[in-house]
């Protein structure tokens, strides 16, 4: 399959998402020319702000391949990925992102990525949300090796 074939599948998923009452986005994750997972925006149906198409494709790939990383993979997205999705794809080791509709197409419909990318450019804590650091005695415990149950 070609890049255009994969993009047309992402667009078909975007149409399905819109028909279901969600935001109009779809995504297909491909490795070695074969689709390994796909996703469509399900934010409204799942009441989950993180259920963007790219995130849903990453979740499906994780379950299918039992892996949280997907190196040497390409994400085909029907629209320009937002900062959240971009961060998730970076974290997952995605090698390439191909998108169709850019902000010029999406913004008039209320789907610009610019505001979120602009907010994320600042240092941690400069995104317009109050962030408080609260050090406590047990803060290191989750990172320490766990003792075997029953041993002291």
UniProtKB/TrEMBL annotation:
Its EC number is 3.5.4.33. Residues 1-124 form the CMP/dCMP-type deaminase domain. InterPro entries: APOBEC/CMP_deaminase_Zn-bd (IPR016192), CMP_dCMP_dom (IPR002125), Cytidine_deaminase-like (IPR016193). SUPFAM superfamilies: Cytidine deaminase-like. GO terms for molecular function: tRNA-specific adenosine-34 deaminase activity. Pfam families: dCMP_cyt_deam_1. It comes from the Bacteria. The keyword Nucleotidyltransferase does not apply. It comes from Sedimentitalea xiamensis. Keywords: Hydrolase, Metal-binding, Zinc. The keyword Protein biosynthesis does not apply. This is Nucleoside deaminase.
């Amino acid at each position: 399959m070609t890049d255009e074939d994969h993009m047309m599948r992402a667009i078909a998923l975007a149409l399905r998402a819109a028909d279901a009452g969600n935001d109009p986005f779809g995504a297909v994750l491909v490795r070695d020319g074969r689709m390994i997972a796909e996703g469509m925006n399900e934010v409204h149906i799942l009441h989950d702000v993180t259920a963007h198409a790219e995130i849903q494709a990453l979740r499906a790939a994780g379950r299918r391949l039992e892996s949280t990383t997907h190196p040497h993979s390409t994400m085909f997205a029907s629209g320009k990925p937002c900062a959240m999705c971009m961060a998730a794809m970076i974290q997952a080791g995605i090698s390439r992102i191909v998108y169709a509709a850019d902000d010029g197409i999406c913004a008039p419909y209320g789907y610009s990525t610019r505001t979120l990318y602009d907010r994320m450019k600042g240092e941690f804590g400069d995104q317009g949300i109050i962030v408080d650091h609260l050090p406590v005695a047990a803060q290191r415990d989750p990172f320490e090796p766990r003792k075997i149950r029953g041993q002291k």
